[in-house]
User: Fold this.
Amino acid sequence: MSTTILYGVVIQHSNGGQKMRSFLKEGSALSEAEEVISIIKNSNKKGFKVYLSELEYDSYKNLILSESLVNEDSELLFES
Assistant:
């Protein structure tokens, strides 16, 4: 098993839905998060949270091993 850490930008809506994009580099994930946050702010929509999560990834199985996309170690970057 070959595991690595991916950085996930997780968008969570108040209705429970989640969307995630993952990146190998934390800087790339933060750039994406800034863009997403800007789009949400400009739309004036409410009920969104944007998190940065470190996710354990098995490259051999092409599988995220983390149980949840958002956990106690995730960083809340924005809330509308």
